[in-house]
Design brief:
Largest sheet: 8 strands, parallel
Radius of gyration: 29 Å
Number of helices: 18
Helix content: 25-40%
Distance between the termini: 43 Å
Structural class: alpha/beta
Shape: globular
Strand content: 5-15%
Strand order of the largest sheet: 2-1-3-8-7-4-5-6
């Protein structure tokens, strides 16, 4: 079994300053997560820290390119060296960022290994934003954390997109994006580039575990893949401690199931956690909840054997992508080994036959084109007549079949975001693909009940089982009332207060029932009500503009 190695990458070089006299706080995230026992609870090895350069935008102004570009490139090379050493030792790197610009270090390490093995390595990008801003679709660039996916796929200035003359680090066909919002401004650019993605509503409709299996299937022809996790994929109702919160995200349980499905294979090379900002979490409640989720989600990564890099030779890697069989041209169909007196005459005859066949084919093609044009003209005339006499035709021919509807080629990526224009081998179906909706709901209920202290959940319509006494009652406190989500589609009658009264949840995890509320609401959005209690009061923080998307 492989060992997890936790590596700190506390870089905030890819973000804009929140104010003129402050720096982004996500560089403090590794320390905050370690304070809640992440390393020990994962039974991981402490792989140390890659110290970044000082954060100092200086006199940078919009239009000057990406800020801290030279420092980010230098840091990416150092981070790639450390990640490569961990992979050589057969360990599973868990990189604690830092902002999203640390992806360039991970991408550089993956590209180095891809080049050495002669194969391809993919990327699964779990993020609330596409981070696909580049000079081709924006008036200017500036913060690498909002442009890291574009840089990792070869778009942008060369000092970041082509470090060590490696461009791109990941091919578009080897990238899968999960968790972006439906209103993301760059979702059409992802669709045009052929990058497969699932926004939150589709991810939630298909299920987190199924979406993870879908992403793995799209990268089945790669040697392996790297996983990028941006904490802002969570909804701000449960995780506001990020630099660019955006409503419409997923819940903790969904993130746990998603990560578990991605890392439970030797082909997952590692994972990075980014953009958690302890400056917005002075009491540490959100850091504790995030650590709880990561410990459960990353446990399957240590239960599989590491990849045998020695077995993945360049020859074996090339064999994974066989070339199509070569088709002999018609002119070479006749063997050239026979030499006799009549060879010249035979060749002349063969050439004459070929020319005559080509001429006949050309004439047939010309006739076919003429016929096609005439048919098109006739069809257009018939269409015009049919539009004018639609009612009369319906009366004369009542049994006439309706015209077959043509596919909507103008459909946006929200309706066809998982259709990839590049063909590839069909993904292998695993046991998870054969799960039905009931199995997925059961798995989610089990995960959620574990987070609620082992108290089982019941399906809609089931009779309430006898539940243990609330934790608050055992401690001499009264259980607090739960906020009720109104307008649920399955509300068929009044509910007695005894059946609706929930057990009290620990104050350190006030949002443990969010996933249940999302399913109950049925709208795909996180309800405004928080259950069962509001979080502890925290001092008001100054409102700052989004650091990645502005």
């Amino acid at each position: 079994m492989r060992r997890i190695a936790v590596l700190d990458a506390p870089s905030n070089l890819g973000l804009r300053p929140p104010t003129a006299t402050s720096v982004p706080g996500c560089a403090k995230a590794p320390g905050a997560l370690r304070d809640h026992g992440l390393v020990s609870r994962l039974s991981a090895r402490d792989a140390g820290c890659v110290t970044p350069p000082r954060y100092d935008p200086g006199d940078w102004r919009p239009g000057d390119g990406v800020a801290h570009a030279e420092e980010i490139a230098w840091y990416s090379r150092r981070l790639a060296d450390r990640i490569g050493e961990l992979l050589d030792e057969g360990e599973f790197p868990v990189v604690l960022g830092g902002d999203c610009s640390i992806l360039l270090g991970s991408a550089l390490a993956a590209n180095r290994r891809s080049f050495d093995l002669g194969g391809r390595i993919g990327l699964i990008y779990v993020d609330g934003h596409a981070d696909f801003r580049h000079p081709g679709n924006a008036s200017y660039v500036g913060a690498a954390a909002g442009e890291d996916l574009a840089l990792a796929t070869g778009r942008g200035q060369a000092d970041l997109a082509a470090i060590e003359n490696r461009r791109p680090y990941f091919h578009d066909s080897d990238v899968v994006v999960l968790g972006i919002r439906t209103h993301d401004e760059h979702r059409y650019d992802l669709h045009a580039a052929g990058i497969a993605f699932r926004a939150v509503p589709q991810l939630r409709a298909e299920g987190a575990a199924r979406s993870a299996q879908w992403a793995r299937g799209l990268l089945s022809d790669c040697l392996g893949y790297w996983v990028h996790i941006d904490v802002d994929v969570l909804d701000p109702a449960v995780m506001p401690a990020v630099d660019a919160p955006d409503p419409g995200g997923i819940a903790y349980t969904e993130l746990e199931l998603l990560i578990s499905g991605l890392v439970a294979t030797p082909h997952c090379l590692g994972v990075e956690i980014t953009v958690f900002d302890p400056d917005y979490d002075p009491t540490g409640v959100y850091a504790a909840e995030l650590v709880e989720t990561l410990v459960m989600a990353l446990a399957p990564a240590a239960a599989v054997a590491p990849l045998d890099w020695d077995a993945l030779t360049p020859a074996a890697a090339v064999a994974l992508a066989p070339e199509p069989p070569a088709v002999a041209p018609a002119a070479l169909a006749r063997p050239a080994a026979q030499v006799d007196d009549d060879a010249g005459a035979d060749d002349v005859e063969f050439e004459d036959d070929a020319e005559s066949e080509n001429d006949a084919e050309f004439e047939d093609d010309a006739e076919f084109e003429d016929d096609a044009e005439s048919e098109n003209d006739a069809e257009s005339e018939n269409d015009a007549e049919s539009e004018n006499d639609a009612e009369s035709e319906a009366a004369v021919e009542p049994d006439r079949p309706a015209r077959v509807a043509q596919p909507n080629l103008s459909a946006g990526p929200d309706e066809a975001d998982d259709r990839r224009p590049l063909a590839g081998p069909a993904p292998q179906r695993s046991m998870l693909d054969r799960f039905n909706l009931s199995d997925m709901v059961d798995a989610d209920r089990v995960a959620l009940s574990r987070r609620r202290g082992g108290i089982p959940l019941r399906r809609r319509g089931e009779e309430p089982a006898e539940e243990p006494a609330p934790a608050g009652a055992r401690a001499g406190r009264e259980a607090e009332p739960r906020a009720v989500v109104t307008g649920a589609p399955d509300a068929t009658g009044p509910v007695t207060p005894e059946a609706d009264k929930p057990p009290t949840v620990d104050q350190l995890r006030p949002f443990a029932g969010l996933a249940e509320q999302v399913r109950a609401a049925g709208s795909g959005q996180v309800p405004a009500a928080r259950t069962p209690a509001e979080p502890p009061a925290v001092p008001a923080m100054p409102k700052t503009p989004p650091a990645e998307t502005a």
